[in-house]
Amino acid sequence: MKEYLLLLRTDITTKEAQQSPKQMELHMVDWMEWVDYISEKGQLVDGGNHLSFSGKVIRPNNVITDEPYSVNQESVSGYIIIRAKDLDEAARIARKCPILQGPGTSVEVRENIPFPEH
Hints:
The chain is of the alpha+beta class. The chain has a single domain (2-111), classed as Alpha-Beta Plaits, CATH 3.30.70. The chain contains two helices and six strands. Strand 3 (57-59) and strand 4 (63-65) form a beta hairpin. The chain is flat and about 40 Å long.
């Protein structure tokens, strides 16, 4: 089994795309069911974290942007790490991610490749 990072993207810039407290509460129920399912199968490596809506992007020549990086109003809002036999299996797990129920969302699946030991 390999490790895969699921990068969770949401629209953190558009006011209308933000969930109400009630929507967030319902979303968390779905989220916990999904994470518990992955965990019960022995495929959860790290339950990950949510990321704040604020941040900075630092580029060469000391160019700094005072907001998180986003494309099409989507920005990384969290991550989890799972185990899967290959990229296709990891993508099948990611397709069931509850954040995909909302507009302006996506999940990027990337293999987690450790740095070589020195």
